[in-house]
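Continuing the series of single-chain predictions for the mutant panel. This is the parent chain; the variants come on the following pages.
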Amino acid sequence: IYAPLAHRLGLYEIKSELEDLALKYTQPETYATIANGLKETKRERTRYINEFIKPIKEELIKMGLTFDIYGRPKSINSIWNKIRTKHVTFEEVYDLFAIRIVLDTEYEKEKEDCWKVYSMITNFYRPSPDRLRDWLSVPKGNGYEALHTTVMGPGGKWVEVQIKTKRMNAIAEKGLAAHWKYKEGV
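Parent structure:
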């Protein structure tokens, strides 16, 4: 009941936490298997993320942008849903993480800067044309704004990249109420 409500309100962090907790208690073996799989592959994923973001980070600095860039693991529930819907094993789930680029830019330049970053990324990595999600032009109903793409990274691995601004990230993580907080400088 509460996870879908949190999702409708745009409270992504809470939604994900509630879904993971529900899975932990309704299917403890499944939860433990995925949690252990994430734990065992953490070092390898961290090394890959660092290799992937290195040229992007260098170019963002050259572009004079202020940013945070990091890898974010997918939630256990999200991984479980992929395993179920795509009929694959944990080892076959290729996107156990997403790269998030959060720009610190003026409101008036948000779209422009996000698209510049997208363009730069595609200079390094080949995008999957059917995996571009533009929620900058038309935000989701819950207020979510971002640019998502999936690109072919080193070693032929697909990597999801999320590009957004600090304001957009606050809304994504804390819901629309965070927008008003952000706007008032609180």
